[in-house]
Amino acid sequence: MASVETAAEHERILREIESTDTNCIGPTLRSVYDGQEHGLFMEKLDARIRNHDREIEKMCNHHFQGFVDSITELLKVRGEAQKLKSQVIETNVRLQEDGKVLIGSMEELKQCRVQQRNIATTVDKLAHCLPVLEMYSRLQEQMRAKRYYPALRTLEQLEHTCLPRAGQYRFCSIMAENIPKLRMHIRETAMTQLRDFLESIRKHSDKIGETAIKQAQLQRSLDSAVTLQPRALIGRRGRKEAAVTESSGEGGSPLSEQDSGILDVEDEEEEDVPGAQDLVDFSPVYRCLHIYTVLGLRDVFENYYRKQRRKQARLVLQPHSNMHETLEGYRRYFNQIVGFFVVEDHILHTTQGLVNRAYVEELWELALSKIVAALRTHSSYCDDPDLVLDLKNLIVLFADTLQGYGFPVSQLFDMLLEMREQYGEILLKRWNLTFRQILDQDNFSPIPVSTEQEYRQYTSQFPLQDPELEKLSFPKKLPFSEFVPKAYCQLKEFIYACLKYSEDLHLSSTEIDDMIRKSTNLLLTRTLSNCLQYAIKKKNVGLAELVQVIINTTHLEQSCHFLEEFITNITNVPPETANATKLYGTATFKDARHAAEAEIYTSLNAKIDQFLQLADYDWMSAAQSSGGLTTSDYLVDLITFLRSTFSVFTNLPGMPVEHATLPGKVAQTACMSACKHISTSLMQLLLDPEVRQISIGALHQLNVDLKECESFARASPVAGFQGDTLLLAFSDLRQLLDLFTQWDWSTYLADYGKSTCKYLRVNPHTALALLEKMKETSRKNVVLAQFKKADRDRQKLIDAVIKQLRNLIAQHHA
């Protein structure tokens, strides 16, 4: 059994050796040698080798005849091949001999073809190089002629079209190296020209603005001249914008160098004033814009241009420190601003995006705020109304000019309304000086007129309506002084000045009327009122002057409705319009008249005090008979003064004025006030603490002076008093003196407190004080004459009356 398995295993190993690559036979043989039957395996291997040798031998015997036949055929072919080789060699020798001439001709043909190819290549290269050279030559000519935009176009074509076609040549390399330098040179030159342009328009913005303002002024005068006709002139700006629109609509390409320079001026023959843009050559801007656009740096150029213009705007908007001194300073300031924005407006409408509407509006907002601030500051220094009015007209023209270019200017007109208040204050200051000068120069006397012409001259200045005065023959006197017609004319001049400022402010008639009336009210209630108070309160103003002030204010008060009509006529706004402001002239002149009346009373009393200071009573004088006493000298002079003074009051107008006191009442009040003041002053002389003793003789002298005063009152120095009304002013002093001179104490004490008392106006305190002074005098007399019984009795009587008066006062107090 073991031998069968071994034989099978050896058979398997042999098959494996036959079928396996010799490189992998090692493991197989190793398995043979690992076993114990390798001898047996070698025998089997030898037997297998012998079998294969027998098979090989059989195969070789089968194919050997064919091999022999092939060798025989091969030997025959070798002989034929030797013959063929010799023939080929002979043929080749003959061919070589015969082809030597052909080969020479072929070489010559080859050389000709090479030359022909070289010539064609040269012509082709020259065809590509000549345009490069020509274009470079043209570029140099354009650079020398400073035609930089065409030069840049040539440069672009040379770089991107011609040089790539020309190939790699040294001169092409040199050109390629020079292209960035030329481009940089063009860029720097264009920027230099732009800087020169910016500097130029900065220097000439004044002239540009002046021309634009003249155009606006001319247009406004033409509009006002032909308000009902269609405009004959079409704005230059409209024509030029249309031209720009057509040129941009045709191709959309940037303007060429020729038409991007100075603007057309074909309309100069039609208009006297050239367009503001005609003064500026904008070609550097257009050229630089196109160059930077071609270079792909348009954003850089736009940012640079806007930045520089913003800087220039700040310089233009910075006013000179002394701008407020003259109108020319304001005009130059406005001209520069207008010139700046005219240039920006033209750039906006003639370039595509260099500046846009938002940028221009931003600049204008900045400018507007700075302009308004500068004008507010500088106009506040101005105290000349004529300069303020000229400035207002200049601002209006400035605003109209820029409004014509599409800029909003409502803030400027709002500021002008603010300046209206300042203008009004300046006017009030000027008219304050004017009224004071008129008052200082006035003689406070009625105006004498000798002829009809003089009379008409004054009535044309002041609306005097007095039929009685009209009937009088010449020469005659107007009731008022020169102040009245002059002041009335100045009131009208003030109204005209207010109206001038309101013109061209785009205000309605109602607004203008309201502004004029409010300003006039300020003039009446503040300025004229203060001036009248100044004239009334001024030192050394006589009663005659005060009387004339009353007459003047009365006539001015009557003229107030004529001022109302005057304002209505110039504003065309009826006074009955709702919410219409009324003039306060009536109240102003009424207050002035009342102040003058009060000043008359005060001045008259002060004059009376001056006379009373001259009173020199001998309070210790002995009693005399009434026939031996005479009126004091000071009182005689005082009465004479009062009579002459009250005669002046006959010049007061006799017509009543609505809501005013009768002028005749002024004289009556002054007369009553003077009498009361005299009575009170004489009473104060009696009760003066410094006068400690008074004799009965002094009371008799005072009684004589009082009778003189009563005589003056009975004579009615001023008409209009009923009965003895004026005597009532002296009743207190009269009853007091009667009580003491008649020594009627029994009646006084018995009837005290009764309405029928004879001495009703005698105050017990006053009587007691006077008795105390007489007691001191009587006591001194008793000491000096102790042996006179009459004096002792009188002293006892005085003591008894004093005691009774004290009891009376105590009972009344209880």
Automatic annotation (TrEMBL):
<dbReference type="Pfam" id="PF04091">
    <property type="entry name" value="Sec15_C"/>
</dbReference>
<keyword id="KW-0813">Transport</keyword>
<feature type="domain" description="Exocyst complex subunit EXOC6/Sec15 C-terminal">
    <location>
        <begin position="411"/>
        <end position="773"/>
    </location>
</feature>
<dbReference type="GO" id="GO:0000145">
    <property type="term" value="C:exocyst"/>
</dbReference>
<comment type="similarity">
    <text>Belongs to the SEC15 family.</text>
</comment>
<keyword id="KW-0268">Exocytosis</keyword>
<dbReference type="InterPro" id="IPR048359">
    <property type="entry name" value="EXOC6_Sec15_N"/>
</dbReference>
<feature type="domain" description="Exocyst complex component EXOC6/Sec15 N-terminal">
    <location>
        <begin position="44"/>
        <end position="213"/>
    </location>
</feature>
<dbReference type="GO" id="GO:0005886">
    <property type="term" value="C:plasma membrane"/>
</dbReference>
<dbReference type="Pfam" id="PF20651">
    <property type="entry name" value="EXOC6_Sec15_N"/>
</dbReference>
<feature type="region of interest" description="Disordered">
    <location>
        <begin position="237"/>
        <end position="268"/>
    </location>
</feature>
<dbReference type="GO" id="GO:0006886">
    <property type="term" value="P:intracellular protein transport"/>
</dbReference>
<dbReference type="InterPro" id="IPR042045">
    <property type="entry name" value="EXOC6/Sec15_C_dom1"/>
</dbReference>
<dbReference type="InterPro" id="IPR042044">
    <property type="entry name" value="EXOC6PINT-1/Sec15/Tip20_C_dom2"/>
</dbReference>
<dbReference type="InterPro" id="IPR046361">
    <property type="entry name" value="EXOC6/Sec15_C"/>
</dbReference>
<dbReference type="GO" id="GO:0090522">
    <property type="term" value="P:vesicle tethering involved in exocytosis"/>
</dbReference>
<comment type="function">
    <text>Component of the exocyst complex involved in the docking of exocytic vesicles with fusion sites on the plasma membrane.</text>
</comment>
<dbReference type="InterPro" id="IPR007225">
    <property type="entry name" value="EXOC6/Sec15"/>
</dbReference>
<protein>
    <recommendedName>
        <fullName>Exocyst complex component</fullName>
    </recommendedName>
</protein>
<dbReference type="GO" id="GO:0006893">
    <property type="term" value="P:Golgi to plasma membrane transport"/>
</dbReference>
